[in-house]
Amino acid sequence: MGGSYGGYAALIGVTVTPDLFAAAVDYVGISDLAHFMRTLPPFARPRLTNNWYRYVGEPDDPEQEAEMLARSPVTTVDRTCDPLLVVQGANDPRVVQAESDNIVASLHEHGVAVEYLLAEDGARFREPRELALVPPRGRAALRRAPRPRSWTAVSSAIRAATSRR
User: Fold this and answer.
1) Domain locations in the chain as residue ranges
2) Which Pfam families has this protein been placed in (predicted)?
């Protein structure tokens, strides 16, 4: 479970290393790195100079954009079958609704169980009536997951994933 960049991490976890995860909750997560950087509002852009452009890439450079897309969960959903809960605020100024719309559509196309919880009038589920929806839906997504994997299976998957580097 994670929000914003943590949502990206949750999505990467279930799409790049699905053997290590049984389910995920993505809360306003980034699904396409280049799209995210292009849609950030002006007030957030100055913070990108020293970190995002340097470590993630420049979305206006075609070569770097291709690398960013390769590291984006929206392009790797074919590797997962884990159930997901995607939580998004329709008016979130930083991680726009299209980030969640795109990952949910891609997951549906690949037959992955996904529930999409959208706060139509909110930014990040801050209202009590909105917040009250998230825990039960998150628990339901986790209950749909297969039984937890054994530590032996997890250790083997970690060794396999790290040996490819």
Assistant:
1) 2-32+72-163
2) Peptidase_S9
